[in-house]
Design brief:
CATH superfamily of the largest domain: NADH Oxidase
CATH architecture of the largest domain: 3-Layer(aba) Sandwich
Shape: globular
CATH class of the largest domain: Alpha Beta
Helix content: 25-40%
Bound molecules: flavin mononucleotide
Radius of gyration: 24 Å
Oligomer: single chain
Number of domains: 2
Number of strands: 8
CATH topology of the largest domain: NADH Oxidase
Structural class: alpha+beta
Number of helices: 11
Length: about 300
């Protein structure tokens, strides 16, 4: 038996064909009795997304060893759009943290949510390293800051000096410019070969950030920590990042030491409404420009 393990309870099946319609890989078909099935040869195309289990009105489909009765029911008990917008509007990058651990229940909630983040082709192979206690974070911080300090104090025009730019002196003066005193950190890495490698970790951390906000936990996307991890391979060992994986991104988190009084007022983006147009064939130069500017840069 394959690990897809697509099982239909024929007594329960109402032959509606919704599973066939909703299958992202288009491999479910209905047999002559309108019972869904997947051909042996097609099983390898299954993304294991479990949409068939989720869409079935009768709870007749089990897949990947999952019993539909163990699934949470979609009861439309969703937060209102105002609540979701408020969560988004009031999120802020937090650069000042309490030097204390989050409680275990909050950490558990944050970690348990991660599996719901979507990935390209449902490639569920992200690697997540979490620093769960402030002591470990302090050790990590010391090693990273110490090594970067050595680079920066050489005062040569190395790329790293450039990257730290205006923060260089503050860093040398001992300010925790990279980790901002955060007690926790989550690092998402991704197999180099994953179909949507550059995007999956970012989506996961975006979910993480908003859920953290709902739990009263502050976060900071941390480009500097990403640079540090790329420059100091020993740090990747410290975080147990497997061979064949590359760093996706880094986020710091913990209880904020600040309380914002109001939302910011960011400018609108340029937004152009696309109009129906005649299909226009590009000449060679226009094509080159498109490829070059949009894809190759
Ligand atoms: C991809 C990314 C990387 C970032 N890296 C850092 C960083 O290394 N250090 C830092 O202090 N802020 C970092 N930030 C925070 C941005 O400066 C911040 O999002 C921006 O100023 C807007 O502020 P807000 O997040 O409070 O709305 C980063 C943000 C993003 C999205």
């Amino acid at each position: 038996m394959s690990d897809i393990n697509f099982i239909v309870n024929k007594e329960k099946c109402i032959h509606c064909g919704l599973c066939e319609k909703d299958c992202g890989s288009s491999i479910i078909e209905l047999n002559e009795e309108r019972i869904p099935q997947i051909k042996k040869d097609d099983e390898k195309y299954c993304m294991k997304c479990q949409h068939c289990l989720a869409i079935c009105p009768a709870g007749a489909i089990s897949v990947c060893g999952k019993n539909p009765e163990d699934s949470d029911i979609c009861d439309n008990n969703l937060p209102t759009d105002e609540q979701v917008l408020s969560l988004i509007q009031h999120r802020k990058s937090i650069r000042s943290y309490r030097h204390e651990n989050l409680d275990k229940a909050t950490l558990y909630k944050l970690k348990d949510m991660l599996k719901y983040s979507p990935t390209g082709c449902n490639n569920h192979t992200l690697h997540i390293s979490i620093v769960e206690d402030v002591e470990t974070m302090d050790k990590f911080r010391d090693v990273a800051n110490g090594t970067i300090n050595k680079f920066l104090s050489l005062n040569i025009s190395a790329p790293i000096t450039k990257k730290f730019g205006k923060y260089r002196q503050k860093f040398l003066d001992g300010e925790d410019i990279i980790f901002r005193g955060a007690p926790h950190m989550i690092v998402v890495s991704v197999p180099v070969s994953a179909p949507c490698a550059p995007v999956d970790p970012i989506i996961l951390l975006s979910y993480f950030e908003l859920y953290a906000q709902s739990l009263g936990v502050g976060t900071l996307w941390c480009g500097f920590a990403e640079i540090a991890l790329k420059l100091i391979p020993e740090l990747c060992e410290y975080l147990d990042i497997p061979d064949g994986y590359k760093i996706g991104y880094v986020m710091l988190f913990g209880k904020s030491d600040l309380k914002y009084q109001r939302a910011t007022q960011p400018e609108d983006y340029d937004m152009l409404q696309v109009q129906p147009k005649y299909y226009y064939k590009l000449n060679l130069w226009e094509k080159f420009k498109r490829y070059f500017w949009n894809s190759l840069r």
